[in-house]
Design brief:
The complex is a heterodimer of chains A (290) and B (291). Chain A is mostly helical and 290 residues long. Chain A contains twelve helices and two strands; from the N terminus they run H-E-E-H-H-H-H-H-H-H-H-H-H-H. Chain A has two domains: 36 residues, no CATH class; 239 residues, Orthogonal Bundle (MetI-like fold), CATH 1.10.3720.10. Chain A is 74% helix and 3% strand. The radius of gyration of chain A is 24 Å and the shape is globular. With 291 residues, chain B is an all-alpha fold. Classes of the chains: A mainly alpha (290), B mainly alpha (291). At the A-B interface, helix 1, helix 3, helix 4, helix 5 and helix 6 of A face helix 2, helix 3, helix 5, helix 6 and helix 7 of B.
Chain lengths: 290, 291
């Protein structure tokens, strides 16, 4: 009995420093966000309780509507562009015998480059005028230079395109691991039964990675909800709010207008949405395990 | 037909399929598709590095992919103008401290949750799993305020300490320690070792693989992170490489200097990748499914 008591004390003492760090860096700020979002403040000092006033002011602001609907546009485009690319790449690489290691390595390479550096790189790739990389390439095909990032209907797909460029390699590796886990005998049996290549893909490969794809889709949506530095660096949310995001709004309220309560009220809304998505994600994971 | 070409006993296409002409053709289409993907993945990086060899006039006026000349002197000049050595040193300082705290703090937490399991450990476990899902950027504002309140703005310390509070790392450690037999720990306890010395003298030496993975992740994170470093270190002389890149948003600099600075910022991670690719790529598939 005494032993047990000592074990508990020792255990908590050993992890106490870490718990303090986690509290300071993760858990307390999360709670502080919620509290602050219900107060008015001067700088970093809370003044008085205002209920949902921050929330309603933020929501009624036109920026919020733009950011909110853009988030769906980002999600849509990231599904169109970013969801299928890794699946296709993984299937292709899995089918190839030659230079497999080289393919995996080079496709993963963009992933090791810091996100901010990637954003600046693509700023120059999309640069208006004839010397941006995209315009150079299109110029060789006889297409006049475009000011890509000023086109409000194109700006989100363009941003999603380079986000995909950066992250597709890592996702491809996850799918590859999934594909390699498929029992080779399934294919063997199918081909003996006379199933063609298309049938094998349709009735073996795709069903086998379906669960993985579902999981990764949710993770991707969670990821897209946090888009911040890509539009911050490339367009600063423009043209005319066409690429602004919820996280970018948080950034602007907090570190440009120094209106911390409004910033935290948006953070809280994002966190709530993410919690719902996470619950969904955990449910799917549990279903997959069953 | 070479023998190696024929041997394929996994995936959709099998060796016997490849005898068929159409399938062989299809295989080459797939191969070219993969080559195209490699080109798309690598070309922007190469273009960025090549563009650094152009001078400003060339970069702004001439729609060419390749530079006219390859003088490394242009890079050295930019390095000197921007005083980039200072930012490298600052980044290294951040990285070193971050590794220390990432390994010790998350390691101790993982050890406690895996091997000591004091009363209430499940609550911590639960909190960690949730923290994994809620990104730190959503609580950046109160965190920033916390740091300002205790007066650590303009210091490396909060960046070091924040590496010690990484739910993902703590869980990776816990999973690793779960694979160490409890009997070793019990034996040490009977010999009168304290938990502290068990961790440092017995568990830690066994943890080389996981420590390597955590160290590599920490280096990449610390090198790439810019939001918190920017908020804390901007205009203090302690800017890291990423903070310097972010400052280009508001400062006057020529396009070629910026693009050379980007090259400076991507070379260390690429070198790291060249040495530790196996660890980095395995990390993604094993534990890396993360928001």
């Amino acid at each position: 009995m005494r032993n047990k008591y000592r074990k508990n004390i020792a255990g908590w003492l050993v992890m106490l420093p870490s718990i303090i760090l986690f509290t300071f860096f993760l858990w307390e700020p999360l709670i502080a966000s919620v509290i602050m979002s219900f107060y008015s403040a001067k700088g970093i000092r809370l003044e008085k309780f205002v209920g949902f006033q921050n929330y309603s002011e933020v929501i009624q602001h036109p920026d919020f509507k733009a950011a909110f609907s853009n988030t769906f546009a980002y999600t849509f485009w990231s599904i169109v562009i970013g969801f299928l690319v890794p699946i296709i790449l993984a299937i292709i690489i899995n089918e190839i015998i030659h230079f497999k290691g080289f393919f995996r390595l080079s496709i993963y390479l963009p992933n090791v480059i810091p996100g901010l550096a990637v954003a600046i790189m693509w700023l120059y790739i999309y640069k208006a005028g004839k010397t941006g990389l995209l315009n150079i390439i299109l110029g060789n095909l006889g297409i006049a230079p475009q000011a890509w990032l000023t086109k409000s209907h194109l700006v989100i797909p363009l941003i999603v395109l380079f986000m995909t460029w950066r992250s597709a390699g890592a996702t491809t590796l996850i799918y590859l691991a999934g594909l390699q886990g498929i029992d080779p005998e399934l294919y063997e049996a199918a081909s003996i039964d006379g199933a063609g290549l298309w049938a094998r893909l349709r009735y073996i490969t795709l069903p086998q990675i379906y669960n993985l794809a579902r999981t990764l889709l949710i993770l991707q949506i969670i990821f897209v909800f946090q888009v911040l530095y890509e539009p911050l660096v490339l367009t600063n949310g423009g043209p005319n709010n066409a690429s602004t995001t919820l996280m970018l709004l948080v950034y602007k309220y907090a570190f440009e207008k120094f209106d911390y309560p409004k910033a935290t009220s948006i953070s809280v809304m994002i966190a709530l949405i993410l919690m719902m998505l996470t619950t969904l994600y955990n449910k799917i994971i549990k279903e997959n395990e069953m | 037909m070479k023998k190696s070409f024929l041997k394929k006993d996994y995936g959709i296409i099998r060796s016997f399929d490849l005898k068929n002409k159409t399938v062989k053709f299809l295989y080459f289409i797939l191969l070219s598709g993969a080559l195209l993907a490699v080109f798309i993945a690598i070309f922007p990086i190469i273009w960025t590095i090549l563009s650094g060899f152009k001078d400003l006039k060339e970069f702004v006026n001439e729609p060419k992919i390749f530079p006219k000349s390859y003088h490394i002197g242009k890079f050295i000049e930019t390095w000197k103008i921007l005083n980039f050595g200072k930012f490298y040193i600052n980044s290294f300082i951040v990285i070193l401290g971050s590794i220390f705290f990432a390994v010790i703090s998350n390691g101790l937490l993982g050890y406690t949750l895996s091997k000591i399991r004091p009363k209430g450990y499940k609550l911590i476990n639960f909190l960690l799993l949730w923290s994994l899902m809620i990104p730190t950027t959503t609580s950046i504002v109160p965190l920033f305020i916390n740091i300002v309140k205790i007066g650590l703005q303009g210091s490396f310390i909060p960046l070091w300490l924040s590496a010690g509070a990484n739910a993902f790392f703590a869980i990776l450690y816990k999973n690793f320690f779960d694979s160490i037999p409890q009997s070793i720990i019990e034996a040490a306890r009977i010999d009168g070792c304290t938990e502290w010395s068990i961790f440092f003298k017995i568990v830690f030496p066994l943890s080389f693989p996981i420590n390597t993975v955590i160290t590599i992740f920490t280096i990449t994170n610390a090198w790439s992170d810019f939001l918190l470093p920017y908020l804390l270190l901007n205009n203090t002389g302690k800017e890291t490489v990423m903070v310097r890149l972010f400052q280009f948003r508001n400062s006057v600099a020529t396009d070629v200097d910026i693009i050379r600075a980007v090259t400076f910022s991507i070379i260390p991670p690429i070198i790291l990748f060249a040495f530790f690719q196996r660890y980095m790529m395995e990390g993604i598939t094993k534990g890396g499914i993360k928001g």
